[in-house]
Amino acid sequence: MKARLHHVGIAVHDLDVSQPIYEKLYGTTMRRAGEAISGPSGIAVAACWRVGIELTSPIAGSDTPTAIALREFLEKRGEGVYALAHAVDDFDAANAAAESTGLPLIMRLTLSEEEIDRELGGAFEYFDETVFDAANTPGIGHFVVFNALKYKPRG
């Protein structure tokens, strides 16, 4: 399996506060994801794929495994890098490797073409993601994220 860093996940308490700071810092505009991502994950997301940064914040009252784990991360460690997301050439092998180490899978997300267009700005032909909670795993200390994705050609 080949993997390359796709983006860094940064946990924040409040996207409304953090997003403008990151946009100014990196001279970019971050896109907020909608219900297809926030619903199943329980987290609010703003990302810029060009820069490789994704800001995430747990949605108040959400009890999804991802929201709970992110809330616990913020309570224990505060804001900052919490996840490394890798694009992989063999999604099944990457997930099997994570599972074989005993990492708990806390989310799997597959977006339709319509959801990709609406929530990710149409940047991808396909987009699948798994999130493993390794934040409390000795030797790792962050979430491990695998993405099966293909960028759309720029026209």
User: What portion of residues is helical?
Assistant: 25-40%
Straight-line distance between termini: 30 Å
Order of SSEs: EHEHEEHEHEHEE
Name the structural class.
alpha+beta
Q: Would you tell me which CATH topology applies?
A: 2,3-Dihydroxybiphenyl 1,2-Dioxygenase, domain 1
What is the architecture at the second tier of CATH? Roll
How many domains comprise the coordinates?
1
Q: Main beta sheet, described?
A: 8 strands, mixed
Q: What is the total tally of β strands?
A: 8
Fourth-tier CATH superfamily name: 2,3-Dihydroxybiphenyl 1,2-Dioxygenase, domain 1
Broad shape: globular
Counting DSSP H or I runs of 4 or more residues, the number of helices is 5
Query: Could you name the CATH class?
Result: Alpha Beta
Mean pLDDT: 95
Strand order of the largest sheet: 2-3-4-1-5-8-7-6
Taking Cα atoms only, what radius of gyration do you get, to the nearest Å? Answer: 15 Å
Strand content: 35-45%
Q: Which stretches of 5+ consecutive residues score pLDDT under 50?
A: none
Topology:
Blueprint: E1 3-11, H1 15-26, E2 31-32, H2 35-41, E3 43-48, E4 53-58, H3 65-77, E5 80-88, H4 91-100, E6 105-111, H5 113-119, E7 124-132, E8 143-151
Parallel strand pairs: 1-4, 5-8
Antiparallel strand pairs: 1-5, 2-3, 3-4, 6-7, 7-8
